[in-house]
Write a structure and sequence with these properties.
- The protein is about 0% helix and about 55% strand.
- A hairpin with a 2-residue loop joins strand 9 (about 100) and strand 10 (about 105-110).
- It folds into 2 domains: about 5-40 and about 145-220, Jelly Rolls, CATH 2.60.120; about 40-140, Jelly Rolls.
- It has strands at about 5, 15, 30-35, 45, 50-60, 65-75, 80, 85-95, 100, 105-110, 115-120, 125, 130-140, 145-160, 165-170, 175-180, 185-190, 195, 200-220.
Length: about 220
């Protein structure tokens, strides 16, 4: 049986399922799937020199994103960039110790345990035992939220979504195989992204941890001009 750590979505808003730049989610249609390969990403070094980031997916592309997922390699302690109006979830995937200070509150992150914080609050991290690596999920607070869980797969783990929406699966350790109605036996290497739009049934097989991320948009978000 899989073990999971769950992270609740924003309770203040009521989500709706909408199509977005990730694809259409029409009623009665087969789910749409694609894979974004980690091998195709490019590292971008931080301005303070303390690490670098590989962007996995950004919707829409650019600085004015609704949501964004990336992997960060932290080489040394330092401040985080500020993202006003953005909620962040960070998942430590490599390294023994990472201490995150948000405002005046410090928290030591646990391996594979999602941690949520306000991206607009002055934040910094310390890595007293050496470099770390983490998965980052960012969502624009007035437009959407992310529901994040990390599941430990030991053989096979089933996943299902009965409603429409956007879900992403990201192996955090070794390779895993995803099989479903739109994804027949596809091998996902570490940090590859399987993106599914629409209701689905999926089996993930192998040994390791996988992040499941659901993006939920709000009923009262303003339309873009």
């Amino acid at each position: 049986m899989p073990n999971s750590r769950r992270f609740p979505t924003n309770p203040r808003r009521r989500p709706r399922q909408v199509p977005d730049a990730a694809g259409s989610a029409g009623t009665g249609r087969r789910p749409e799937c694609d894979v974004i390969r980690w091998a195709d990403t490019t590292p971008a070094r931080w301005r303070n020199g303390g690490g670098f980031t590989r962007e996995l997916i950004c919707v829409p592309p650019g600085d004015h994103f609704d949501w964004r997922i990336s992997v960060a390699d932290v080489a040394s302690s330092g401040e985080f960039s500020s993202f006003e109006g953005v909620d962040r979830v960070i998942v430590l995937v490599d390294g023994t110790r990472m201490i995150l200070t948000v405002g005046a509150v410090s928290s030591e992150l646990r391996l594979f345990a999602p941690f949520r914080f306000d991206g607009g609050v002055l934040s910094s991290c310390a890595v007293p035992s050496g470099p770390t690596r983490d998965l980052n999920i960012m969502t624009r607070r007035d437009r959407c939220a992310a529901r994040v869980e990390v599941v430990e797969v030991r053989g096979s783990a089933p996943f299902r979504a009965r409603d429409l929406g956007v879900e992403l699966f990201i192996p955090l350790g070794g390779p895993l195989t995803a099989s479903g109605v739109c994804m027949p036996g596809t091998v996902l290497e570490r940090f590859d992204v399987l993106r599914i739009v629409g209701a689905f049934s999926l089996a993930v097989t192998g040994i390791g941890h996988v992040a499941r991320i659901r993006i939920e948009h709000f009923t009262n978000w303003p339309e873009r001009p």
